[in-house]
Amino acid sequence: MMVTRVAVIGIIVENPDSVDQLNAILHRYSGYILGRMGIPYRGKDIYVISIVVDAPQDVTNALSGEIGALSGVNAKTAYSHVISKT
């Protein structure tokens, strides 16, 4: 049995050179991603991205940690209180 939680990972990309690495990470976790919304803020040359996942908490933590370790990228995660068992 797998226990999952829905979470939102908020990402701010300040270094455009990290975008390819970010996309590669998201591709590896694509099985857990429910949706993604990205907004380029051209006036400040940053990207604001939100990722919605339904995954075990350790998987969500790993994903957020990998993203946050990229140069010029910040990530924060908010978890729902709803826990699902599959």
In short:
The chain is an alpha+beta fold. The protein is 26% helix and 50% strand. It contains two helices and four strands.
Description:
The protein is of the alpha+beta class. The protein has one domain: ACT-like. Chain A, domain 2 (Alpha-Beta Plaits), CATH 3.30.70. 26% of the residues lie in helices and 50% in strands. The chain is built from two helices and four strands. The protein has helices at residues 19-28, 57-68; strands at 3-13, 33-41, 46-55, 73-85. It has a four-stranded antiparallel sheet, with helices on one face. The mean pLDDT is 96.
Characteristic key phrases:
alpha+beta; four-stranded antiparallel sheet; 2 helices; Alpha-Beta Plaits
CATH class: Alpha Beta
Percent of residues in helical segments? 25-40%
CATH topology assignment:
Alpha-Beta Plaits
In total, how many beta strands?
4
Name of the CATH homologous superfamily: ACT-like. Chain A, domain 2
Profile the largest sheet.
4 strands, antiparallel
Number of domains: 1
If strands are numbered along the chain, what order do they take across the biggest sheet? 2-3-1-4
Strand content: over 45%
What series of H and E elements makes up the topology?
A: EHEEHE
Number of helices: 2
Write the layout of secondary structure elements.
Elements (H helix, E strand, L loop, with lengths): L2 E11 L5 H10 L4 E9 L4 E10 L1 H12 L4 E13 L1
